[in-house]
């Protein structure tokens, strides 16, 4: 967190083609929101699932992708086996996580919760310009000098 003292923001490149565990991603997201310096995010290649949430969780005006990057949003997925009562417990948990993830996406994109829920029902892929229009990112960068603050 050296950047916190220098007044400079932090830059995070995101290349996450398969998402990952929701709780691990949420710990990164929470840290991004908690720390003082702005966190600038850039998708390089693909930001899928939790990767897309981390991308859009960057500081407003500082969320980017490169021209051929792809973003993908969807509802969380998982699997569980065991006793019926255990399966019910896990089903309730994944539904709560889905609601929280949708709330975060709605907050950062400006889309309604209803729209986010519909758009994440199945895999939803977006290119750079579509991601800008949706509110996932702020700008598609073709040159480094176009990034905010440079």
TrEMBL record:
Source organism superkingdom: Bacteria
GO MF entries: ATP binding; ATP-dependent peptidase activity; ATPase binding; serine-type endopeptidase activity
Database matches in InterPro entries: ClpP, ClpP/crotonase-like_dom_sf, ClpP/TepA, ClpP_His_AS, ClpP_Ser_AS
EC number(s) stated in the UniProt entry for this protein: 3.4.21.92
Active-site annotation: 49, 74
Keyword presence, Cytoplasm: yes
GO BP term, example: protein quality control for misfolded or incompletely synthesized proteins
EC class (word): hydrolase
This protein's UniProt keywords: ATP-binding, Cytoplasm, Hydrolase, Nucleotide-binding, Protease, Serine protease
Gene Ontology CC annotation, any one: endopeptidase Clp complex
Physiological role: Cleaves peptides in various proteins in a process that requires ATP hydrolysis. Has a chymotrypsin-like activity. Plays a major role in the degradation of misfolded proteins.
The family this protein is said to belong to: Belongs to the peptidase S14 family.
Protein name per its UniProtKB record: ATP-dependent Clp protease proteolytic subunit
């Amino acid at each position: 967190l050296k950047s916190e003292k220098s007044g400079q923001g932090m830059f995070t490149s995101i290349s996450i083609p398969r998402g990952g565990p929701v709780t691990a991603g949420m710990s990164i997201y929470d840290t991004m929101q908690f720390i003082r310096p702005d966190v600038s995010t850039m998708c390089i290649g693909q930001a899928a699932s939790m990767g897309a949430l981390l991308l859009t969780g960057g500081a407003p005006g500082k969320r980017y992708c490169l021209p051929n990057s792809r973003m993908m949003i969807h509802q969380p997925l998982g699997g569980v086996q065991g006793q019926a009562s255990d399966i019910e417990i896990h089903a309730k948990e994944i539904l709560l996580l889905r609601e929280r993830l949708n709330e975060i996406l709605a907050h950062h994109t400006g889309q309604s919760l209803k729209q986010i829920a519909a758009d994440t029902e199945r895999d939803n892929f977006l290119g750079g310009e579509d991601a800008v229009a949706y509110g996932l990112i702020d700008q598609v960068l073709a040159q480094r000098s176009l990034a905010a603050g440079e």
